[in-house]
Amino acid sequence: MEQKKRVFSGVRANARPHIGNYLGAMKGMLELQDKYDCIFSVVDLHTVIVPYDPQTLQAQIREVVLDFLGAGLDPHKCHLLVQSQLAGEHLELAYYLGCIYPVSRIEDLPTYKEKKATYPDYINIGLFYYPVLMAADILIYNAELVPIGIDNEPHLEVAREMARKFNAMYGTKLVEPQRYATPGGSVPSLSGEGKMSKSKGGTIILTDSLAEIKTVLAKAPTDSGHGEKFPAEGPAANLMTFVELFEGHDRAMQYKEQYKNGGIRYGELKAELAEAIYKELRPVQERRKHYEEHPEEVEDILKEGADYARGIADKTLKEVRGKMGLSKHETTN
Length: 333
Ligand code: ADP
Fold this sequence. Notes:
There is one protein chain. By secondary structure, this protein is mostly helical. The protein has a three-stranded parallel β-sheet. The protein has a two-stranded parallel ribbon with strand order 4-5. The chain is globular. The relative contact order is 0.15. It starts with 5 loop residues before the first strand and ends in a 9-residue tail after the last helix. Helix 1 links the parallel strand 1 and strand 2. It has twelve helices and five strands. It is about 55% helix and about 5% strand. It folds into two domains: about 210 residues, HUPs (Rossmann fold); about 80 residues, Tyrosyl-Transfer RNA Synthetase. Adenosine-5'-diphosphate binds next to helix 1.
């Protein structure tokens, strides 16, 4: 039987996942779990690279697992784990990958520069190592497809380069991963500043009530609502991205017409959009509730996920160690 394609993706636990994470990463995960051999992880080792609270980390990890399950990741179709369950395996491969990759390539990454600017007092080696560990997270499972947002594409390029270089140097067969794209690959912030991000305002999280969604939308910047041409960027364009994603292309086209003829009434647009977002999130919240009430089920799911992942990770590491001359026996996958 032909081996199913392997898929990996992870979400950090710095804050509750927002609808950007949902549309850019989780939607892709949901699509792929029906077809492929999927491993999805809360990547908590990536959470500690920026300032965080150790007292609340376990609770935050649990929230992300619950959001995964609420979003519809089905433990009968995919494997779920927390990255630190396999800390040794992921970190070991990251170390080997780091040994063959130039410092200058990481220094040039826009994501590294951004994080340095966000946390100027916390520019530590862990932050620098983030793309290396992310490459290891993917390469250790030989994942071919990675459902992630556009912001992560430079990291995937790093992972591909590492795989190529490593294979050329040691004769391993690490797989070069590709991004699996969804329509919401780059969801803007509702506060109007760049992409929606856990470290900024203007986010809607998966458990927000209709009232909470309305409050965030109420603060979203708007313009006059009319003009000769619908603007390609700015507040109107931002809101239209959400209309497209939650109400569809036709509704967005109607608003764009309205903009040129008579004008958009943003109060009404926001009320309708809030309902549409809530309609998408309500089933997520209902599924989530089941797992909130059954923590023992969640434990079992994570244990199964980690056991499954360990089997694959151990095989990759054995081969890598063998080819690197770090163990007596060279094995093949
Ligand atoms: P954040 O970037 O919000 O701090 P993570 O780093 O945990 O969160 O990202 C988890 C996943 O969500 C990644 O695949 C990332 O590419 C995706 N993602 C993050 N923000 C967005 C966004 N605004 N639009 C689309 N996808 C996003």
